[in-house]
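Suppose a colleague, Dr. K., hands you the sequence of a protein chain of 116 amino acids and asks what its three-dimensional shape might be. Before reaching for any lab equipment, you can write down a predicted structure in token form. Begin with the sequence itself:
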Amino acid sequence: LDALAALLESARTRGVPVQLYIAPIRNDLPLPYDMADYRAFKDDTRALADRFGARWTDLEGVVPTADWGEKGATRLGGGGEVDFMHFKATGHAKLAARLKSLIEDMVETPPAGGAP
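The predicted structure, expressed as tokens, is then:
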């Protein structure tokens, strides 16, 4: 988080607009995270965005369950396993469309005190 703060401070100093986002994640299964830590991470990144004038968006639900990938077995005798990090081409297309709209909005309406 200290590195992110330094990056955001540098961007603000240079007038570079920044869009932070929480990456898509599967929502059909329990997440492989400590949920208290994950919520704190989201709160911390949002607070940093507010502090440095960056935009922040939660994109957790952008990729539906059907668009998530599967990974090879990581245990002996196992078949395919749930992949919490990668999605199919259709999922990438959905994420790209949402990111495109965020970037277009950022360019059309920069935050107060941000870059032109």
